[in-house]
Every structure is written in C-alpha cells, then in structure tokens.
Design brief:
Helix content is 39%, strand content 22%. The protein is built from 6 helices and 6 strands, in the order βααβαβαβαβαβ. The protein has a 6-stranded parallel sheet. β2, α3 and β3 form a beta-alpha-beta unit. α5 packs parallel to α6. The longest helix has 19 residues. The radius of gyration is 15 Å and the shape is globular.
Length: 170
C-alpha cells in the first residue's frame, strides 16, 4: 500500500494566526500532489492540529502564545483548496501523533509513505520520525516543494535532519 499523509494544511497555518507567505505558496502544489496520488490509487490521511479553549494554559501555549487551530474554528479547518473527500482525519493535540501511526497501520502495511504539509520543522519532521519508527521497512519520503517551515532556514534544516534519518527528501 502507498499512503499520502497531508499534515496540518489548516487555515491558521496558511493565512491565519500562524500563516506565512511560504505556506500560501505551497497550497497549489499540495493540491496537485493530492490529485496525482489519488489518481495513482494511493490512500490518503489528513491531520489537523487541534487545541481547546485552554490552549494558552498548555505547555505548548505557554511557549507559543498564539492561539491557533482551536477546535471548531475556521482556522482549525483544512483549507478549502484541498479536497479531503473520503480521507480519514486524525486530530492531534501535539506535534507528532502516535494516533496517526496507528491510523496508517489500520489501512494496511505501507510500503511507501509520503508526507506533505506544514510545518516542515515542527509537525512534518515529528510525524516523519514516528512513522519511520513504526514502519522501519517502509520508504518514508517528504516532498520539499509541498512543505513549508516556520522560516525558510528552519525548513531547510528540517529537510537535512530528515535525510540523515533515512527519510527521502524529494
């Protein structure tokens, strides 16, 4: 099985509370990748960064005091530029998600897992490492053109770190 995982392509990370110009720029490439992988028969999972009204009282909120991706808000929604369709959605309260790895396992034994989305240097790298640990024989790859980091520099640093950990960067 081949699996595309779309990480946190939510309004708050694109043009909302934590949006960046780089995030806005990758949306068309992610939409194209999603359509291509579906036409090739790949399975698809989406993640949503998900916080509650108490976000500022959490460890993350105390370190990043910008409320974002609050459950049920417009900022929490996946951008309307991407077709979620029948894909499973995994809500995750932290950067990396063990639930995502289990959702992937429930779809079958993946031979290839591709990640795209936001942010390269936080949630993409965290989930790539979890997936590599859960599926050590699967090829895990990240499409650099379909990801954006907090900054261009941190994006590049994350890509280099993933490469050292045998995540293929394309």
């Amino acid at each position: 099985m081949k699996l595309l995982i779309v990480i946190d392509m939510q309004n708050d990370f694109i043009d909302g509370a934590l949006g960046t110009a780089e995030a806005v720029k990758i949306v068309p490439a992610v939409a194209d990748k999603l359509a291509a992988r579906r036409s090739e028969g790949w399975k698809v999972l989406f993640t949503r960064d998900t916080h509650g009204a108490d976000y500022l009282d959490t460890q993350e909120g105390r370190r990043l005091s910008v409320p974002h991706c609050i459950w049920g808000t417009e900022g929490w929604q996946i951008t309307s530029s991407l077709e979620v369709g029948e894909a499973a959605l995994v809500d995750k309260p932290t950067f990396g998600s063990l639930d995502l790895a289990e959702a992937a396992a429930n779809l079958g034994e993946p031979e290839e897992i591709e990640l795209v989305g936001l942010c390269t240097d936080i949630c993409v790298i965290s989930n790539a490492m979890i997936l590599k640990a859960r599926f050590p024989e699967a090829r895990v790859l990240v499409d650099a053109a379909c990801c954006a980091g907090v900054t261009p520099e941190s994006h590049e640093n994350a890509l280099k770190a993933m490469g050292v950990c045998q995540v293929d960067v394309i």
